[in-house]
């Protein structure tokens, strides 16, 4: 009974933490179901969208000594389509073996063109360079509908 109460309390904490914070690591069994089952392509306003993930740790000399993970999601509309207006990131999850990092990605630069935009999450965990991860992006459209989109697995890179 005590174990069941502890499990319920920990799931409640994970839900609370997801709602209240934007940068934490948790066991993979606490990943939201929609994120676990996210497709590799979604259609928003008749526009097919895909996400790719560029993830690395920065070891460059002369920079601030912060080697935590930086994850950049590249959101791309299919050829011949523009990104839907009002589309924005709400959350991101980077899944690594038995745990995940939850964050709130931001658009730091103007869109590259009308069919591609990048969203970045910083100050992630210090998982080993070379390990494979999968990214999941939660998007909202102009009507506040949510969409979950999964990237292909990518190895954590290293910038020297």
Largest sheet: 6 strands, antiparallel
Weakly predicted, low-confidence segments: 1-21
Helix content, binned percent: 10-25%
Supply the CATH class: Mainly Beta
DSSP, total strands? 11
Number of domains: 1
Q: Total number of helical segments?
A: 2
**In angstroms, what is the radius of gyration?**
17 Å
- Structural class category: mainly beta
The CATH architecture assignment turns out to be Sandwich
Q: Could you spell the SSE succession in H and E letters? A: HEHEEEEEEEEEE
Q: Output mean pLDDT.
A: 87
β content, as a range?
35-45%
Examine the coordinates and then state which fold CATH places here, giving the name of the CATH topology: Immunoglobulin-like
Overall shape = globular
In whole angstroms, how far apart are the ends?
A: 51 Å
* CATH homology superfamily name: Domain of unknown function DUF4426
Report on the architecture of this protein.
The chain has a single domain (23-159), classed as Domain of unknown function DUF4426 (Immunoglobulin-like, Sandwich), CATH 2.60.40. Helices cover 14% and strands 42% of the residues. The chain has helices at residues 2-20, 33-36; strands at 23-27, 42-44, 47-58, 69-77, 88-96, 99-103, 116-121, 132-140, 146-150, 154-155, 157-159. Strands 1, 5, 6, 8, 9 and 10 form a 6-stranded antiparallel sheet that branches.
Secondary structure elements and their pairing?
Layout: H1 2-20, E1 23-27, H2 33-36, E2 42-44, E3 47-58, E4 69-77, E5 88-96, E6 99-103, E7 116-121, E8 132-140, E9 146-150, E10 154-155, E11 157-159
Parallel strand pairs: 3-11
Antiparallel strand pairs: 1-6, 2-3, 3-4, 4-7, 5-6, 5-8, 8-9, 8-10
């Amino acid at each position: 009974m005590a174990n069941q109460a502890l499990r319920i309390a920990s799931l409640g904490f994970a839900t609370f933490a997801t709602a209240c914070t934007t940068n934490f690591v948790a066991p993979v069994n606490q990943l939201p179901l929609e994120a676990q089952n996210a497709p590799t392509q979604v259609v928003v306003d008749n526009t097919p969208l895909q996400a790719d993930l560029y993830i690395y740790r920065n070891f460059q000399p002369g920079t601030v000594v912060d080697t935590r993970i930086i994850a950049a999601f590249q959101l791309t509309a299919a050829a011949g389509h523009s990104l839907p207006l009002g589309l924005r990131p709400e959350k991101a999850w980077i899944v690594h073996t038995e745990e995940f990092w939850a964050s709130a990605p931001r658009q730091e630069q103007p869109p590259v063109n009308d069919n591609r935009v990048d969203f970045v999450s910083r100050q992630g965990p210090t998982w080993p360079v070379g390990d494979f991860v999968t990214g999941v992006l939660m998007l909202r459209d102009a009507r506040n509908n949510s969409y979950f989109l999964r990237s292909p697995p990518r190895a954590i890179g290293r910038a020297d």
